[in-house]
Each structure stands twice: as C-alpha cells, then as structure tokens.
Amino acid sequence: MLVAASTRQENFVDIDVSPLAWVALGAIILLLLAIDLYRHREAHEPSAREALVESGAWVASGLLFGVVVAVSWGGEAFGEYISGYLIEKSLSVDNVFVWAMIFSTMAIPVKYQHRVLFWGIFGALALRGIFIAVGSALISSFIWVLVFFGLFLIYTGLRVIRHRDDEGEQAARGTGLVRRFFPTTDEFDGQKFFTKQGMKRVATPLFSALVVVELTDVIFAVDSVPAILAVSNEPYLVFASNAFAILGLRAMYFLLANARQRFHYLSHALGGILIFVGIKMVLANWYHVDTYVSLAVIGVILVAAVVLSERKTRRLMSDTAT
C-alpha cells in the first residue's frame, strides 16, 4: 500500500513563488544563453584566459541569483539554493571529463566543441526541468520515494568511488544510434549539424556528438536531480540551482578538460557527497539535517579532495624530478 505524504515536506522551506518569478527566471536564462551564443558565433578555440573569465562570470551569475533568492525568500531558501548549486556544480566536474573523452574519441575539433555543448546544455535544461517536476511530485505524494531515492544515491556514490575511466569510450558507442535513424557523414561542414551531399541531407559528426552528450546527461541527471531534491523540495529553487550550475559547464569544460590527472580524489569526493545526501534523504522522515550543516559537509568534502589531490600531484612531480 502506498503511503501518502503531506503536500509539502516540513523539513524543507515553504516559499510562495509567483508565475512572474518563473517568467523572470526563464527570461534570465534565455538572455544568458543568447549572450553566450552571440559571443561564440564564430568557431574558435577558447584560450585558457577566456575560459577562466567566462567561468568566473557564470559563477558570479549563479551567486548573484542566490542573493536575489535571499532577498526575496530569506536565508533558508538561500541555503537550499546554494546547497543545490554546489551539489550540481561538483557532480558536473565528472561530466566535464566524460565530455573530454567523448570529443577525443569522436575526433571533434576544439573550435566546434562549444556549439555541441551549447545545444547539449540547452537540451539538458529542458530534461532537468522534467526530471525535477516528476521528482518533486513523487516526493510530495509518497513518503517511501525519499527512502528509494536515498538508497539509490548511496548505491551510486559507492559506484562512483569505484570510477571507471572508459565512460567516454562507452558513451561514444551511442553514435550507432544516430546512424540507425539518420544518414550520416564523417566529414565536417563548419559548425553545422546537418549538411547536404548531393541531393541528400545527412548528419555531420557534430550531430552524432550532440546525441551522445545528451545521452550522457540523462545518466548524470538520474544521479544529480535526486541529490538536489535531498536538500530542497521547492521546484523553483531546485531548477534555478540546477540551471545556473550547468549553464557554466561549457566554460568549465574548456578550463578543466585536460586537468583530470590532477584530480586524484575526484571520484572519492563525488561518491562521498552522493552517499551523504543519500543518507540524509533516507533519514529525512525521522531526522532533519540542517541545510547549512549539509552545505558545510559538502564544502568540507570538496575542499579536502582538492587539497589532498594537490598534495599528491606535488608528491608525484617531486618523485618524477628525483
């Protein structure tokens, strides 16, 4: 027998979000996407400085929206938004490295990768919106869903700790799916996803890469959306934190794509975060972990991973030099 829950979980903040607030959020996201698309209208390979500046700008945008949340709905809402933002941002780092393997495997030139990621993230926003709406509705209706999501996150966290390095190669096999439904070519035509060969319209390798990127995002969304629902059950805050975190992934990709070897303890950190929020979700019906305590735990895990990774990198470099 299904056990019904209250329409709003008592442990989560309850805010009044008007339709105008949703319209404003959508307008902000579309404006930022339009600016990004205009800046990268010409295919080029972003420099490290350009990627760093853009990453900083995207992070600043996310934090600025957090200020808007704090002013509009208070500190608890701000805590849930920032917790969700930090969870999605940290889990997305692994996504960035998988993209790097996909593009390397499929031999996509760097100057064309931004176009693939732009439309990939555009699709990811729509997909996350659906996942969030369904997940929030389930949690609001049935108590046992919290336990199910929590156990799933714990299992996923343990699997992430035992991270495999062949994800990109396995994901790239999804190109076979494109060939089943579209005539394809191995030749590029600038930034176009489709081109003409004679009288036939065919898909370029960029479209194949876009499909694979979208498929991998489905896998990551299955992990990240339940994780964010562990810290907030307000669809507006969950979607906003998700959106601002993934909007900056393109810049993060060009900044970090070749730095995976420096993040020795990335899988341990991401797995630890998933296990923590999974435990928090399982216990939610009996014990509430304060939002800011959750934020502190997640922050400590990330900082510890970065510090330990840097120490190991320096030690390896020192051993190599000697």
Explain the layout of strands and helices.
Blueprint lengths: L18 H21 L8 H26 L1 H32 L3 H32 L2 H18 L5 H6 L2 H7 L12 E4 L2 E4 L1 H25 L5 H13 L1 H8 L9 H17 L8 H31 L1
Antiparallel strand pairs: 1-2
Helix pairs in contact: 1-9, 2-3, 2-9, 2-10, 3-8, 3-9, 3-10, 3-11, 3-12, 4-8, 4-9, 5-11, 11-12
Brief account:
Helices cover 73% and strands 2% of the residues. It is built from twelve helices and two strands; from the N terminus they run αααααααββααααα.
* Oligomeric state, counting identical vs distinct chains: single chain
Please provide the ordered H/E string of secondary-structure elements: HHHHHHHEEHHHHH
The helix content is: over 70%
Q: What is the domain tally?
A: 1
Query: Which structural category fits the helices and strands?
Result: mainly alpha
Per DSSP, what share of the residues sits in E-state strands of 2 or more residues? under 5%
Q: What low-confidence regions span 5 or more consecutive residues with pLDDT below 50? A: 1-10
Q: Span from first to last CA?
A: 66 Å
Strand order of the largest sheet: 1-2
Rough outline: globular
How much is the radius of gyration in Å?
20 Å
- Biggest sheet record: 2 strands, antiparallel
Number of strands: 2
Q: Tally the helices.
A: 12
Overall mean pLDDT stands at: 78
Keywords:
2 strands; two-stranded antiparallel ribbon; 322 residues; mainly alpha; single chain; 73% helix
Description of the molecule:
The chain is an all-alpha fold and 322 residues long. The chain is built from twelve helices and two strands; from the N terminus they run H-H-H-H-H-H-H-E-E-H-H-H-H-H. It has helices at residues 19-39, 48-73, 75-106, 110-141, 144-161, 167-172, 175-181, 205-229, 235-247, 249-256, 266-282, 291-321, and strands at residues 194-197, 200-203. Strands 1-2 form a two-stranded antiparallel ribbon. Helix 1 (19-39) packs parallel to helix 9.
